[in-house]
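The instructor's notes for this session suggest beginning with a concrete chain rather than abstract definitions. Hand out the sequence below and ask the class to guess, before any prediction is shown, which regions might be ordered.
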Amino acid sequence: MIQFLRTFFDQTINGLVIGNIYALTAVGLALIFGVGNLINFAHGSVYMIGAYVGWVCVTQWHTPLPIAFLAVIIVCGLLGLLIERLGLRSLQNSARIAPLLATIGISFMLDQTTQLVFSPNPQSFPSPLPTTRYWIGGVSIGATDLLIAATGLSLAAILFFFLRYTKLGWALRATAQDREAAQQMGVDVNAVNQTAFALASILGGIAGMLVGIYFQTVYPTMSFQAGLKGFAANLLGGLGNIPGAVLGGLLLGLIESYGVAIFGATYRNLFAFVILIAILVIRPAGLFTKKRQLPPEPLTGTFTPNNKLVRIPPWLVGLGIALAGLLPFVIQSPYVLQILTNAWLLGMVALSVTLVTGTAGQTSLGQAGFMAIGAYTSALLTLRLNWPFELALPVAGVLSAVLGTLLVLPAFRLRAHYVAIATIGIGEIVSQVILNWDNLTNGAMGLTNIPAPTFFGPPVFLPREIYWYSLGLLLAAALIQWRLLRSALGRTWRAIREDDVAAQAYGINLNRYKALAFAVSAFVAGLSGAFTAHMYTYINNETFTNTTSTLALTMSILGGMGNILGAVVGALALTGLPEVFRGLVDYRYLIYGLALVLLIRFRPQGLLGTE
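After discussion, reveal the predicted structure:
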């Protein structure tokens, strides 16, 4: 019993310590959402930048810890100002989805720049504090624990004083309460926005540095997990609610700490994602705020009123298909054919995005989860049940459609930012289940020796055969989607996208038609994932990541949201161009992020226009 109590108190202390860090991240997100009504997906990247700035100061320059904190404050504060001024201010009058997508592109750019500068490998961050631990009432507390607690409490007190007793703090609170009224009273809302971004970035950067010291390591991909945990903590307390964000962070830290003690460290990230979805479904307004009406659905398919659809003559489309089919007779390079094969498979994922997001108006950032379901389904059916590939492939697509729709089903009552967050969480839940279900998926080791694709005959190994197979799947998916969009179902989806309230008033069952859109989308993404698994003969939980989901969204926007041909053109452009300019291969994700930001700013309707 004594040992149990000691373990319980130790986990409580650990939970409160890590909860302090989650609270700092969540408060930053709450500030930005409260002032700008924006979910800032770049916040996790700023957190990661803060961790690296602290690492450089402490381990490379050997500066005292207070100087390292000051450097983090300066760098992250300036970074927040730049994000607001250069990346988001010009989108203030755009559709709600535009700045949200821009922050995703900014996150891509920051993450890739960090990898180019410091390499993708984790970096050791030895703690600059004494390793001595203090025993208080049978509970062990270290110097790092005390530092994190003191930093969290101090920053909370400073922020409270700033918001309560300074004119700029009053302006920030007034803008958060009613932006238009504050502007009419003479408040410079642009200055308030910059202040919110600077403060949020400082808090996020300090949180990143504290995490680096606590876990004694920093790495570029820490940004994504941190961002989602910040969202989870923020949602627990209520978006835009600063005291709620603090409580949500502490509660999330405790839940995670107790969960790790019971189930093991591999489940650490799963708790945050499950909590995120549960709160979105049960009480999207948060546990510590009064229930309020959700914001309106964004017009995801129409970023700009000046949309001009580029009409491509059918004969030209047919000619392009014929040339694509004949290409392997002209190009013999296996490398080039592999690049084009990847483009066709990613084109299928872009098609799935352009259907559910561009046509039906439901912002989906979890397509990688659907791909993973399809990949593991087909791989397991062929490996363990000896099913033929020709049968396993469509079954994988159907199961992706069924499971994908069931997973997203609770999010159908959500709107605006909430849908994007929910689909990201669902994608990560799929990844975490794959990681931890060892008996079925082989965990982190993945599945090996997956049979090569077949087409009612011997295995397909030659690059040109794989090329034709993937091209055929893409054309089949495009044809099915083309038929759907020109049917009554397609018109219903577009009606929901443009005005879901009016659509419901006309008797349209929103949940039913959203489910159909996600089912078709997940089916196509599942087919792509399944073929990819058999093509490479190996998959694990990191084969299909959130990067794939964001890349597919970028391809869809580049071609034109809701535009079938545009999705294929976008996939071909973003897959092929970095290979054409071989020196840019290492910069591909930086290019993807920059392309997304520039598209949202200057050509939101895409190359071929939005349908």
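Then share the key points. The mean pLDDT is 85. The CA atoms of residues 562 and 571 lie 14 Å apart.
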